[in-house]
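Case study 2.
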Amino acid sequence: MVTMLGSLRTHAAGTLREEHVGTDVVLAGWVARRRDHGGVAFCDLRDASGIVQVVADPSASGALEAVGDLRAEYVVRVHGTVRRRPEGNENAALPTGDIEVAARELDILSAAATPPFPVEDETDADEVLRLEHRYLDLRRPKAVQPIHTRARINSVMRRVLEEHGFVEVETPVLTKSTPEGARDFLVPSRLRQGSFYALPQSPQIFKQLLMVAGLERYYQIARCFRDEDFRADRQPEFTQLDLEASFVTEEDLFGLVEAIFVALWREVHGADLATPFPRMTYDEGMRRYGSDKPDTRYGLELVDLGAVFATTEVGVFKRVLDTGGSVLGLCLPGGDPLTRRELDELVDFARRRKGGLAWAVVEPDGELRSPLRKFIRDDEVEGLRKAAEAEPGDTLLLAADQTRKAQELLGLVRVDLARKRGLAPADQTHFLWVVEPPMFEWNDDERRWDAVHHPFTQPSEQFVAHLEENPGAVTARAFDVVLNGVELGTGSLRIHDRSLQASVFKLLGISAEEAESRFDFLLRGLSYGAPPHGGIGLGLDRIVMLMTGSASLRDVIAFPKTQSGGDPLAGAPAPVYPSQLSELGLILRR
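Prediction:
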């Protein structure tokens, strides 16, 4: 490891070892803690490399007096000699625990106010307080380690892509509003009042134009911005590894992305990943797991119970099946049965999501205990047990609704049960490609079709001729890479034919005039000979979170926002001066 020491010190504190015994050193850093014992003063000195113990005894009266003046987080410089710690005083918890530095001189470079929380690895300080003083929070080794790992991940990604002939290109941050599914952050223009820039949700159009330009292989560690409603796993600004390549198929992109992850796991974790990653269609993921990003580390697969209840008199099941919906089930194995309170909580969980959930427990004699039992025929009980492969002690959870809604509800229940029951092995790494998603989905509220990914995605070849006849049946040449139930990236082959792009815009309700207004620079570019191309955006924040075992995206971002989108450190967002609004030609409407 290369350590940039600067002129004020000769060594980094955390690098000192037994081989340095007898060496005169000059160290500089922060006081982690100070303590006195019988006329001898100790302080733990911390810098970016780690911690070392500094000792001042009566033989070094100047240093002893200076140590007595120290408080936590003072910045100091120490002149001293490395020596072994007295036998029995070693600290096995520290890499420097076999040695200490006997101080001859100690200079205070900067005094420090009392921190609002202890700068220690383990702290119960409120997260907002820590984010408000993030510069102090990052002095904690545990807090700063993900930042160092993130830098290593960036480096490995860059190296792999450069080895594959990719060129790093920065695309604009101030650009034109071309909504891609979420709201844009808008920036008013002072010089062209009444007009606005938008911060990019992704570099999508620019990277496609780089393919038109003949660059062929582009990548960027890109900042992206989406003005979305608050969600625990999202930040309004985030980072993705963005890449695009010409003359490629899905298989080329799969191989490239897998090479990136293989290198990451080998160099960061010292572990090997098996490739190629398994493939699963979107429909299979929804049918088996109720998710387009299934966690395959555990079972709990969904079961179609339509045949079991085909002639049922259970009202809710009959109504759903008669209208083309589905009755689906999930079997939780016994051994640790759900309590009545937990079952009621799951029913409430479903109700909050505007869905219905029923439960049934298989008794030792094979009978069902359920609020619905008096409505279910004996042959249906037997069919239910067989279809779900349910044994005595197992719990069955049933959902009846439109097929996709029932799948999604049981998918959420599946994940919730796995989390609460610890069913997902923490030491397993299950990568997965989810392929062939739908190209379009119907927006009931606005009575129109929406693009599932984005409108620049290539439709599957066998469905191109049927775009207008049955859009819901059209699949996309798109794909997601998933790790342990977390989507890490979304990619696709892109439309490179202007007339096909115009057809997709038309289907989405975007008129030719509106398309020309919003996407003129892309459409113009496609008319000058665009190569077949495709790419992917990998969520760097999520990758770092999973690779470091962090609990939140906020833990792996140097200066994150809170769940409400606020910045406790800088106090953003914040009002601006009236004069600034005047320069932009803006008036706030209250």
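The first strand starts at residue 24 and ends at 37.
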